[in-house]
Design a protein that fits this description.
It contains 20 helices and 30 strands. The protein has about 625 residues and is of the alpha/beta class. The protein is globular and about 75 Å long. Bound molecules: adenosine-5'-monophosphate-propyl ester (PRX). The site of adenosine-5'-monophosphate-propyl ester has 23 residues, from helix 11, strand 19, strand 20, strand 24 and strand 25.
Length: about 625
Amino acid sequence: MDLKISNMDEYNNAYAMAQSNPQEFWAQMATNFQWTKKWDEVQSGTIEQADIKWFDGAQLNITENCLDRHLEKRSDQVALLFEPNDPSEETVKYTYAQLHAAVCKTANMLKELGVKKGDRVCIYMSMVPEQLISVLACARLGAIHSVVFGGFSALALAGRIEDCECKVLITNDAGFRGNKIIPLKEISDEALKMKECRSIEKVLVHKRVGSSVSMQEGRDIWWHDLYAKCSTECEAEVMSSEDPLFILYTSGSTGKPKGILHTTAGYMVWAAYTFANVFQVDEGDTYWCTADIGWITGHTYITYGPLLNGATTTMFEGVPTWPDAGRFWDIVDKHKITHFYTAPTAIRALMGCGNEFVTNKSLTSLKVLGSVGEPINEEAWHWYDEVVGKKKCPIVDTWWQTETGGILISPLAGITKTIPCFATKPLPGVSPVLMNSEGEVIETTEASGNLCIDRPWPGMLRGIWGDMERFKQTYLSAYPGKYFTGDGCKRDQFSNYRITGRVDDVLNISGHRIGTAEVEDAIDQHPDVIEAAVVGFPHDVKGQGIYAYVVTGHDCEDSIKAEIIATVNKMIGPIAKPDKIQIVKGLPKTRSGKIMRRILRKIASHEFDNFGDTSTLLDPSVVDEIKDGVL
Ligand code: PRX
């Protein structure tokens, strides 16, 4: 059976079969791939036991499925299209044959540096082709890639390197981003000086900007020096289905970021299946996802999903508003992009810049528009539909998470009827349930509750690196036998799903996931700070902004706010920078010492009535003081 569904009847049939006979359904889907050895069992293990396996007993290499498998038919087709930051710099294109050769050469470089199957490799790079190539080179060797977004600080990078004990770090001298240059090698050097970073043996440095950087003898190697010497032949390592493919760190409501672990075969099938069905890319189409490879969207929908389907994928180095707010649309016209996938925060930012940046472009190549990462508001949905899509392009509002590996709920382009702000229907194999406050499944169709997934799907995370207990606690314990997403959700009378946002202490800032506890810990590092509480508040462009309430030891100068921001930049990176900092005398706490975040959230959102039950507050006068000083 072909991966691709082409009408609503086929969707209904596929959904029904994946529910009633998942083993047979996924066995049929899996025949679309190249296996060194077929599986013994399609799915085994349970959510209760936290031992989910897909295609157990099979052997494969995902890069053979992304690259080698296409060489016969597509060797001259463009696999990767790279659009540089500077519009005057030439586009770079890799055909499938060229990408295959580049991945093999890079895998050989990693071998030279001592990388073997199972080793962890950290990739801390800007959006250049070599970043995607590095990811695939790791997979070619069976090394586990851990990509760290280039906007994270040295400390955040060091923490991630330490947690999974990476052996090699791949970085750039520096990266271009709009009118900024990000000194990636310098940040890497700073990270590697920290005691946490002892596991790194070699640093491979790709030259992008030409910045002067210091190279440590014996440790640091220039990409171009080694690349030139390496062969374009590299046999793919034979991997077992459940061998780890990658780790990707993401924030939770408590503690340090978690290393989400994805394994080989299930992730591959899920990435390919969801890409094929949600986007409905055809031969000759050019697909572009604007995410960074440092996030899960860039893993599944820039790298693996498109290449597994033999599509042409686009990578953009820059930002949507540089040199001006028409940059995305210039690129769409330049490359005749047919499928465009971005985040609501970018849509809102561009919407605010005026329609003229869009209406003076042609955009006639566009067929499908996608949205990901956060709830899209009604105004942005309509603007995207009317001004960008000219009401001719279906919008696929795709709901998923780092943990889910790929899209779980989304319209299928041109097939599912779209509804503004609704992710609509689950993909075949996805069984969403809404839970009430008693922890029971809500049986009525029209309902709202906490969103859980009732049975394993192939792309499901298999664990948290080094911490299986936390994996069980975070996702599998709240509702026994179910995967808990952390999201609230509404279901309409026709069983369409609308995601309403996180129900835990995770913030979604411009589509980036940030834990309130992480930001609080960072702020606490400032020597004058006694205590801090961080909440989200509605923000026109970012979706949510960060509001920090900070208790200081003594009367501080106003400059403390800038210092706090600098501290957060240092501990996490600019993405976690508070938008508003209110210095307060105390935080609203219960007699047992728990901060009443509900009240802080309301004040930050300028909702001053109805704080709910405040009778357990230790000192109710604190609330008035905070309210009076609100920003
Ligand atoms: O709250 C949901 C929101 O983003 C969270 C997952 O974040 P992350 O793991 O960083 O992955 C982002 C890219 C997949 C979810 O728990 N989210 C993601 N997509 C949507 C969304 N909220 C509403 N609508 C979406 N389409």
